Amino acid sequence: MVGIKKGNIRISEKIFRILLISCGTFFIIIGFIGIFLPLLPTTPFLLLAAACYARGSKKFYNWLITNRWFGEYIKNYREKKGIPIKTKVFAILILWITISYSIFIMDIFLIRIILIIVLTGVTFHLLTIKTLKVI
């Protein structure tokens, strides 16, 4: 990267790191919101945050990976260990409740069909992810 050299770090590299850390933080916020909104996926945003932090700041990356709420979740998904059964059941239950309610109150037939497709697809995806045995 080209930039003005200041000390051992080029200014453009520093700006790039700040941008990566900012994006990582944004993705964590979106991922956290996704825990409560079934149409907003959590895992992809947390994985994006981990990727941003890995390139932007080792400190932030280590914080995320060791975080008590997100750390194990990210590690288990990246290592393809699976999702605990309680998490699967909770996610599917919330998904069905919220989307079913949306289908019920929606007046537009095409939107109802799209919601049913999303409901079916996300449910299928969650069911096909390996179940993690918690000891």
Protein described:
There is one protein chain. The protein is mainly alpha-helical. The protein has two domains: 1-81, no CATH class; 82-135. The chain contains six helices and four strands. The protein has helices at 11-36, 43-56, 58-66, 71-78, 85-105, 109-128, and strands at residues 5-6, 9-10, 83-84, 131-132. Helix 2 crosses helix 4 (71-78). It is flat and about 55 Å long. It starts with a strand and ends with a strand. The mean pLDDT is 84.
What string gives the helices and strands in order? EEHHHHEHHE
Low-confidence stretches: none
Strand order of the largest sheet: 1-2
Average pLDDT across residues? 84
> How large a portion of the residues is in β-strands, by DSSP E?
5-15%
Helix content: over 70%
Q: Given the C-alpha coordinates, what overall shape results?
A: flat
Briefly note the structural class of the backbone: mainly alpha
**N- to C-terminal separation?**
47 Å
**Beta strands, count:** 4
Output the radius of gyration. 19 Å
